[in-house]
Design brief:
- The chain has one domain: Isochorismatase-like (Rossmann fold, 3-Layer(aba) Sandwich), CATH 3.40.50.
- It is built from four helices and eight strands.
- The strands form two sheets. It has a six-stranded parallel sheet.
- Helix 4 links the parallel strand 7 and strand 8.
- The chain is globular.
- The two termini are about 10 Å apart.
């Protein structure tokens, strides 16, 4: 991706301590994405970082429901996987991994900070109707094409990519710069959904 492509942005999803080795919700080899993501950043005129940023006691936390992690439940906005407590605002786990280069980012988008509503996507909360404002920001900056990378392929990357395509952006996912949880076939389902939405997987 050449820097002269001024209409293209790199969206780096949730490369945070809690999603890397030793974290509260570690994605297998999560930190393995970092060298490639760091190298990619120089090729884009605009870089955006997203950051899971939950208040303590968030509705998506399994402990909030006295249930085991990865339990499936239904909340007022729809189906929800319950997670181990992770990425609590201001905690070490919520911080970006120390090896991730963040200096080139024009925007850090924090999501999941509504205590009653989860947010996988960088574009919409999990009710699929409350926008984060990212689409408008990107359009104001003249961006029409996106490349996504980060964690996890089958959740936050997946939902961000599908929503971005539905918002009218041309979207690709750098699969070498992503890692998956792969919960009960979620990676295969994510690939199918992204491809059906017109997302290019590379």
């Amino acid at each position: 991706m050449a820097r002269q492509n001024t209409d293209t942005a790199l969206i780096i999803i949730d490369v945070q301590n809690d999603f890397c080795s030793g974290g509260a919700l570690a994605v297998p080899d999560g930190e393995g994405v970092i060298p490639r993501i760091n190298a990619l950043q120089a090729d884009f005129p605009l870089v955006v970082l997203t950051q899971d940023w939950h208040p303590a006691g968030h509705i998506s936390f399994a402990e909030h429901h006295d249930a085991p992690p990865f339990t499936q439940t239904t909340l007022p906005y729809g189906p929800q996987t319950l997670w181990s407590t992770h990425c609590v605002q201001g905690s070490h786990g919520a911080a970006f991994h120390p090896d991730l280069q963040t200096g080139a980012a024009s925007l850090i988008l924090r999501k999941g900070n509504n205590p009653q509503l989860d947010s996988y996507s960088a574009f919409f909360e999990n009710d699929h109707k409350t926008p984060t404002g990212l689409a408008g920001y990107l359009r104001e900056r003249g961006i029409s094409r996106l490349v996504l990378a980060g964690l996890a392929t089958d959740f936050c990357v997946r939902y961000s990519a599908v929503d971005a395509a539905r918002c009218g952006f041309a979207v690709s996912v750098d699969m070498q710069a992503c890692r998956a949880i792969d919960l009960d076939g979620s990676l295969a389902a994510a690939i199918d959904e992204m491809q059906a939405a017109g997302v290019v997987l590379g």
